[in-house]
Automatic annotation (TrEMBL):
UniProtKB keywords: Oxidoreductase
Entry keyword annotation includes Oxidoreductase: yes
Highest classification ranks of the organism: Bacteria, Bacillati, Bacillota, Bacilli, Bacillales
Protein's UniProt keywords contain Oxidoreductase: yes
Organism superkingdom: Bacteria
CDD domains: SDR_c1
Protein's name in the database: SDR family oxidoreductase
GO BP of this protein: bile acid metabolic process
């Protein structure tokens, strides 16, 4: 049975009428989920965990909202305790913590700036102090600043996009790697834009291409250690990043370009991360899984 959600009265299914959003914009990235209308759907009440991640400890960057929140909830349903790293979105992070704890798991909140190399080491240290080990890392932080011309991408924007979207992959992996054991998993959030391109997101798309190459290369380096490295490439997903990136007018048609004629909801990605974090994907490394509403990409 396909569950009904309070989302414009539509059922989320493969064949449906186009879904649009009210005009809205937030002036600061990466945005605040509690201000969005409608709120993103982070939890699928029809999903029942069966212990796939029992006893695991997972760290999720950008875990306060959007895809990161949905992953934290999904991991909790499967028995994992989590640490979520976020920049400033404390109210969203507290809400995620309550949701995780509502499923009987623990949630450590870590606030700080991943663009600063030392903070990744601090985040790993705090996670180890709290839980004693670390099994799964989800690298999910990101920003995007649409520009109609590459001439409008300032040096400051370019550096900020790279320092946020790809540099922490190196900082966090270097900080965590000494503590990861065989069977551990590193999962990155890439993007459909790494494959299909995006004329308004030249710098963002290039960082997501870097995430893909990072995933493939690191997987080859770590396979002998029994550590798997994979990524998920979402299509358009209804998250705070969207309303803080685009104009209010653009938001109204967000996601309609997909074959499914709608944006995805964060909960629709969570099972993919669960799969990559669990033993179900024990023969999968160096791969990028596409969850994008039917957009065809060259993998």
């Amino acid at each position: 049975m396909v569950p009904m959600y309070p989302y414009y009265g539509y059922r989320l299914r493969c064949r449906q009428e186009p879904i649009t959003f009210p005009p809205q914009h937030q002036n600061v990235q990466p945005g605040l989920e509690y201000l969005m209308n409608p709120l993103p759907i982070s939890d699928n009440p029809g999903y029942r965990g069966n212990g796939k991640l029992a006893g695991k400890i997972a760290m999720i960057t950008g875990g306060d909202s959007g895809i990161g929140r949905a992953v934290a909830i999904g991991f909790a349903k499967e028995g994992a305790d989590v640490a979520i790293v976020y920049l400033y979105e404390r109210e969203d992070a507290e809400a995620t913590k309550r949701m995780v704890e509502g499923y009987g798991r623990n949630c450590l909140l870590i606030e700080g700036d991943l663009r600063v190399p030392a903070f990744s080491a601090e985040a790993v240290k705090r996670t180890l102090e709290c839980y004693g080990c670390l099994d799964v890392i989800v690298l999910n932080q990101g920003v995007q600043f649409p520009q109609e011309s590459i001439l409008n991408i300032t040096d400051e924007q370019l550096e900020n996009t790279y320092r946020t979207n790809i540099f922490p992959h190196f900082y966090m992996t270097k900080a965590a790697l000494p503590y990861l054991k065989p069977g551990s998993s590193i999962i990155s959030t890439a993007s459909v834009t790494a494959y299909a391109g995006a004329p308004l997101l030249v710098d963002y798309s290039s960082t997501k291409g870097a995430v893909v190459s990072f995933t493939r290369s690191l997987s080859l380096q770590l396979v002998s250690k029994g550590i798997r490295v994979n990524a998920v490439a979402p299509g358009p997903i209804w998250t705070p990043l969207i309303v803080s990136s685009y104009s209010a007018e653009y938001v109204t048609t967000f996601g309609l370009e997909t074959p499914m004629k709608r944006a995805g909801q964060p909960f629709e990605l969570a099972p993919t991360y669960i799969y990559l974090a669990s033993e179900d994907s024990s023969f999968v490394t160096g791969q990028v899984l596409h969850v994008n509403g039917g957009v065809m990409t060259e993998t």
